[in-house]
Amino acid sequence: MIALPPPKPEILARRAEIVAALSAIVPGDGVISDPTRLKPYETDGLAAYRQMPLAVVLPRTTEQVAAILRYCNENGVRIVPRGAGTSLSGGALPLADAVVIGLMRMNRILEIDLDDRLAVVEAGVTNIGITNAVSGDGFFYAPDPSSQLACMIGGNVMMNSGGAHCLKYGVTANNLLGLKFVTIEGEIVTIGGAHLDAAGYDWLGLITGSEGQLGLVTEVTVRILRGPEGARAMLAAFNGTEIAGAAVDAIIGSGIIPVALEFMDKPCIHACEAFAHAGYPLDAEAMLIIEVEGSTAEQDDLLNRIKAICERFNPISLKVAESPEQSLAIWKGRKGAFGAVGRISPDYLCMDGTIPTSELPFVLKRIGELSTQYGLGVANVFHAGDGNLHPLIMFDANDADSFHRAEHFGADILRLCVEVGGCLTGEHGVGVEKRDLMTVQFTARELDQQRAIKTAFDPQWLLNPAKVFPLQGDLLPPLAAE
Amino acid sequence: MTASAETTLAPPDEAGLAMLVAAAHTAREPLAIEGRGTKRGLLRPVQAARTVSTRNLTGITLYRPSELIISARAGTPIPEIEAALAEHGQHLIAEPPDTRAIFGATEPATLGGIIAANLSGPRRIAWGAMRDHILGIRFVNGAGEVLRSGGRVLKNVTGLDLCKLLAGSYGTLGVITEITLKVLPAPEATATLLIEVPDIATGVRALSAGLGSPFSVTGAALLPGTPTIAALRLEDFAASVTYRAGRLRESLAPFGPATLLEGDPSRSFWREVRDAAPLAAQPEDAIWRVSVRPSAAPAVALTAETLGGRTLLDWGGGLVWVAAPATAEAHAALVAAAAVTGGSCTLFRAPAALRLTVAVLPAEPAPLAAIARRVKAALDPAGILNPGRMGPAP
User: Fold this and answer.
1) Any chain B CB within 8 A of the CB of A464?
2) Higher confidence at residue A245 or residue B18?
3) Most exposed among A111, A186, A408, B87, judged by the fewest C-beta atoms under 10 Å?
4) In chain A, what are the domains?
5) Where is the FAD-binding PCMH-type domain (chain B) (predicted)?
């Protein structure tokens, strides 16, 4: 288990006073302090970790957020920001002496401008909520994490969320124009705006993916895009993971950028097929789902090109969807992959490293060996176009030893990702989960440099403590600039 | 007086560069940072006795076409990178402008310089800016430490994103020494629809309609004049380009009569837009880049016109290039015009006298300015890197 810093006794002792102060800022039902109602906030998408917070506050306006931060800053109270609580890295895990600021009540869509192709929304609007608001006009918001029905845009910004379609459309950072940002001192500032590439330092780029370390985001201006005329998927199954990997290389090398290019290994194919009955080939070692966009004729042209490439690699099965319904059927298993693994194992850890795509066969072989070594099953699903690997490690949370082994297995996979030239996290964030592995990817000086930038925003280190950076001493020594 | 007249040091490698910066840090001696110095005329002149150049840190260090990545040292000239990519049918996604004509430079820009200025061309509207494609960097901070951020994979959210922070920081936060970029296959075919529109406002609406169509427009520029021309680019496989050009032409017919440029004429048209050639800036003109929401572009263009200036619109109207007499009044008017909708105005080229007297970049709100000072101190504790480049040194 990853250590959390000891709570500050003087803060715990002042709990009633802190709750009263927060209630004055957000009157009515804006503050939660009784244990029963606090319970849902004790964990997030990384459910193996649980910690009850000091209190939860649910502001409705940016001004309330600013007042809360000002109060916490002046009183040395730690803060954990939270959207929908879907973080898979424990990004919203509370601390015993921290106030959770939940932004789910800030869920209004403030502006939609189809001519300028943007939407201004509050942080608590769900990812799918943005697309739903503009889909009637043929537009969409591109990043599509698998939690998109629940996850909120504020959390997407903080974690720089990706999705299955970022090979073509990029991740959150590539689809933002502006933020309303609240500093730890409680100052409200506009970052960027409705225009591209605002002049000056790229605060938008730095804040995106900062995991709540620098400040809170209450409003987001996103780019919205016109959707294609249509999209269609195909499935290609192969006899070996290295063969499927070579097919991926050949597709990309031909000049085609599919809108999605997903890879599943044999255990994952089996789990998904048992769950979704999508018609996946059970004898295959690896399977690709490839999606293209355009008019029907353009889809046909691209799918024919991809089919011809796949045929050079002796596929076991090639299935091109003939209709939107068949596309959905092909996607059904992949979209349900996490749930499918959840059916065959009581619990699983979802890892998120990224590797150079050429290393895929070696990495999958090593993961197989580690699976044997730790005595735990693993299913691999992979955004093949961009090298983002999601091994699902199966374990039983009721068996402490099984969980312990799963954590070590996961850490070994992430070390492996870094060793082959990749990174610890492609889209889920460091959170609490990968915090102690940061030294694998970064030198001490590199981490100190990042810490010094964090300190520039948050001198007392009150914002989302114990995440991202390995603990030092009690929690931190905020580094002096010089 | 710019730094170029003084001593220029061009270390042979990253370690040598780091030693120079470390020594300057200890001595608290300001350094001007540049690649080949092609953009010295951009923003404010640096006040430093010595210049450190990355011009000798050259060469492509890694290129994996099938992984869509390329790494090169900061001093590598952009044409060298473009040529290496072209050999494998790939290209720099954001098609950075060649600013030689604007700044009267003779040498090509370096990759480090383009990244440090985050300069992007027409494809930015569809495929993102230079900063969006940086996967990793190596840099020397103001204390002379060699550090990395990001890596060499396409998706990476590990730690704070210093790649984006350093892009567009004009060498004031660190000296970038090596960059890894995402690249993409260059399209097989390209075509451009040229529409004669009655005025700028109609033209911007035509661009918005094109960008809001399902036909994947990858360039959307407006050339004011007689006649005013709205230009929309398509890039893809040949059959797709032909099909979409037909559909786009049909759907934009109400905006005015159209012609189609195909192949090389289309490519050279967009090279000229990329380099702001149609702006036809006179040698004595100042040049601004005004970034606004597209619907605000006509008002900015009108302001430029009343100043006796000329404009070129790119990014669907989101980028307004302005050439006008180099006066403080013109600058103030354009800054105000951009601010109406919260946009930003950059004084891109001007005589040193003007660059030293006005804010070349918009002022930040006080809380952000305070954070900026602390971030600058975190990366460059002695304040030695490019002092005064983005604004008067505090």
Assistant:
1) no
2) B18
3) B87
4) 109-226 (3.30.465.10), 231-337 (3.30.70.3450), 345-436 (3.30.70.2740)
5) 1-186
